[in-house]
Structure formats: C-alpha cells, structure tokens
Amino acid sequence: MTDWLPALEVTKMVDAAVIHGGQGTVQTTVIAGVHFVGIGMQPEQDMNIYVYKQFGNAIQIRKRLRITPRLFL
C-alpha cells in the first residue's frame, strides 16, 4: 500500500504530460512549467485545454477523431 503520489512533484520530473484537461491537472502542469497534450472528456475540459493551447502550452486532441478515408490510386 502506498499513499497518493504528490502530483506537483511528479509532474516536475517529466518533459511533457498527457492529461484529460480537468482544472487541477491543468493547473498542476502549468505550475510545474510542463507542456501538455490534452484530451478532454467533457466540454469544460475541452475549454481548459483550448485556453492553454492559445498560449502555446498545449496540444489539443479531440476525443472523437474524424478520419476521412482516402483513395489511393
């Protein structure tokens, strides 16, 4: 058994993070100075990621990707 990981200390150890975009997770990565890839699971999370994407701190990936089939000749 272990206790909870200290999120800020662990985040400071990485070069980038993949997160869901919740307020706490976004704030932790920003305070740690870490860029992130965000995949929001709900509209509030999408908006959190979008805001930091505009500042250049994040890459936003939509939960539902639309892939257009291409014909190769």
Overall spatial form? globular
Radius of gyration: 15 Å
Q: Considering DSSP H and I runs of 4 or more, what fraction of the residues is helical?
A: 25-40%
Mean pLDDT: 88
What structural category characterises the helix and strand content? alpha/beta
Helix/strand order: HEHEHE
Number of strands: 3
Distance between the termini: 57 Å
* Unreliable sequence segments: none
Q: What characterizes the major β-sheet?
A: 3 strands, parallel
Identify the strand order in the major beta sheet: 1-2-3
Multimeric state: single chain
Structural commentary:
The chain is of the alpha/beta class and 73 residues long. It is 38% helix and 15% strand. The chain contains 3 helices and 3 strands; from the N terminus they run αβαβαβ. It has helices at 7-11, 23-32, 43-55; strands spanning 16-19, 35-38, 58-60. It has a 3-stranded parallel β-sheet with strand order 1-2-3. The radius of gyration is 15 Å and the shape is globular. The termini are far apart. The model has no long low-confidence stretch (mean pLDDT 88).
Quick tags:
73 residues; three-stranded parallel β-sheet; alpha/beta; 3 strands; 3 helices
Question: Can you summarize this structure?
Answer:
Helices cover 38% and strands 15% of the residues. The protein has three helices and three strands, in the order αβαβαβ. It has a three-stranded parallel beta sheet with strand order 1-2-3.
SSE layout and pairing:
Blueprint: H1 7-11, E1 16-19, H2 23-32, E2 35-38, H3 43-55, E3 58-60
Parallel strand pairs: 1-2, 2-3
